[in-house]
Hints:
It contains 19 helices and no strands. By secondary structure, the chain is mainly alpha-helical. The protein has one domain (about 10-85, about 125-315, about 365-455).
Amino acid sequence: MSFDASPDEAAARDHFQIAAIVLLAVAMILGGSSTDPLSAGIVRFIASPVLAFSLWRLSRRPLGAVPLSGLLLLALGAGLTLLQLIPLPPEVWSALPQRAIVVEGYRAAGMTLPWAPLSLTPDRTLNAGLALLPPAAMFCAALSLSAAARRRLAIAAMILAAASIALGMAQLAGGATSPLRFQQPANLDAAVGFFANRNHQAVLLVAAIPLAALLVSQGRGAARGSNLFWMLAAVGVVLILVVGLSVSKSRAGVILLAPAAIGALMVAWPRARRMTQGGTPHGLPALGMLAAIAGGVALVVLFNLTPLADRFNARVDKDTRWEVAPIVAQLGADYGPLGSGLGSFRAVYEVHEAPERVTPTYINHAHDDFLEIWLEAGWPGVALIAAFLVWWICATLAALRGGRGQGISMALAGSTVIGLLLAHSVADYPLRTPALATLFALACAMVAGAVPPRLREA
């Protein structure tokens, strides 16, 4: 979103983008796990002043319907957390579904029923609320910056993804006991980079592919040589990302590569139309993206196909997540309509897990964020998800309908990243990590900020 500003305000905005980039870097580097309290605490500590200053900046500027509705959704998410923490009279909370076991516990101990919140695990619900700090700070910070600054943030995310590949290669070289695996990874045979999970590393890399396509807009209005340089840079980065994706050995990453590639082509195509008069052949940027992806796939087939094939040959029906999903769906219905409390999945699942289903596998999440929210937040959580999906679609269409050139490219890149992360959330929990939640928030700001002023103020 661009605002009219004095030279002093413009300079301050340029300085503030440094804070946003620092937040993004810290979240990406330290926030690769959903269970590390120390790393999460550091990211939240840095996010808090960024969020406060971003809200102050936004309060001094006119906002249109799309950014305001995005901020409203963010506030509703925080409000849902607070509502689950409000103490309720015993007559109220004890009447909620599946609270009989809690009531029996108090009675067995000879205690009277106290006032208690809706959430069965208020400490974890509070932690879930605090987890909103980094993405909220990134959304507000990026929204308060200029379009050029948001593009720099997107490119910074792409560079961090490439750095995660380099770290992953070093992890492979060091073996399963490499000290570079600082997130206590579950996948010791794969390059996990900044993450504890190969699938989270993979979704970062596929999300970075449409962001890399934004590089072709760096040479706008410049000489032919500059245009060609940035186009070749984008091609090189995409090639690296595709090869790095194969090293993660993630089935989800391979599956999401196709929609990421389509998104990258769409991002590059608006720029292709505008480069015809700049001395670069029509359509060349999009063709370069396609060649990079095809070249990366060819390299993978030649040198790294067997490990990936082994992953796909593994029996999918033996994957624990498919056994957990129907149980969580039923628990969501049992605890409806208000849910068991944000962050309560593990405690609730352990109580209801059948003894014959207990395995050595540690189940900390449902591996389906939509089902997990259904269990923890009930119908209010489902309504919030539905409202976000409507916002995402409407904001993207508004940006495409009224935007031009780079605005369309930014909206397409951000919308593609949102779609990739949501798709992965069907079979995993990427947005439970501070790193990917912050990237998701940046993508939302890229879409909202690309809506033209005349539509923002409508």
